[in-house]
Design a protein that fits this description.
It contains three helices and two strands; from the N terminus they run H-H-H-E-E. With 108 residues, it is an alpha+beta fold. A two-stranded antiparallel ribbon has the order 1-2.
Length: 108
C-alpha cells in the first residue's frame, strides 16, 4: 500500500477525516436546501405578481419592441405602459458603491 493510502487510513481511523466529511455533507445539504427554498419563494412571488399585475398580457424583452409589432398590438390594448428596469452602481459620499435596481414606469 502506498504512503498516501496509509495516511488516509490513519486519518479515517482517528475520526478527524470523518468529522470533516460529515461537516462537508451537512454544509452542502444546507446550501442545497436554501437554494431550493429560494427557488420556491421566487416562483410563489412570480405567481402572486401575475394576480397583482391586473393585465391580460405582459411582454418582456431585453430589446426594444419594433414599430411593426407595436402597431399589431395596439388595436388589442386599451391601456399600456412601458417599464424599463436595469441595475446600476450608485456611489454615496463615502465613495462606497452599492448596486441599485432602477425602474422607470411610463404613465399609462
Amino acid at each position: 500500500m502506498s504512503l498516501a493510502f496509509r495516511l488516509l487510513w490513519r486519518q479515517w481511523r482517528s475520526r478527524n477525516l470523518r468529522l470533516m466529511l460529515l461537516s462537508l455533507v451537512v454544509a452542502m445539504a444546507t446550501l442545497l436546501s436554501l437554494q431550493l427554498l429560494t427557488d420556491r419563494l421566487q416562483n410563489s412571488v412570480s405567481g402572486s405578481a401575475k394576480e397583482l399585475l391586473a393585465a391580460d398580457v405582459r411582454v418582456e424583452t431585453s430589446l426594444p419592441l419594433s414599430d411593426a409589432l407595436l402597431t399589431k398590438i395596439t388595436p388589442f390594448t386599451q391601456r399600456s405602459s412601458r417599464v424599463i428596469e436595469f441595475q446600476s452602481m450608485i456611489f454615496a459620499a463615502a465613495d462606497e458603491g452599492q448596486i441599485a435596481q432602477v425602474k422607470a414606469v411610463e404613465e399609462g
